[in-house]
């Protein structure tokens, strides 16, 4: 799939890379599954860069429009799961 990741021009190169890695984690949760601890670390770093809930929602929406992947279920499952769990999202209707 070819699409661009959402980012802010205010972010440093390192922050852009970290946000892209977070969204790659979202993709992995849909495609293969990702360890909860890895996804949680990516999300925590994302929240350091994007602390605002409103900005997070906006960026999640941009990513969904570009990729078709919905970030919220991954984040929700990551927060609720226990360490050692594989976070895997099964899209409704299959993809």
UniProtKB/TrEMBL annotation:
**Pfam families to which the protein is assigned, alphabetical:** UPF0223
Matching entries from SUPFAM superfamilies are given as: BH2638-like
Q: Which family does it belong to?
A: Belongs to the UPF0223 family.
Task: Report what the protein is called.
Answer: UPF0223 protein U6C28_00585
| Species this chain originates from | Lysinibacillus irui
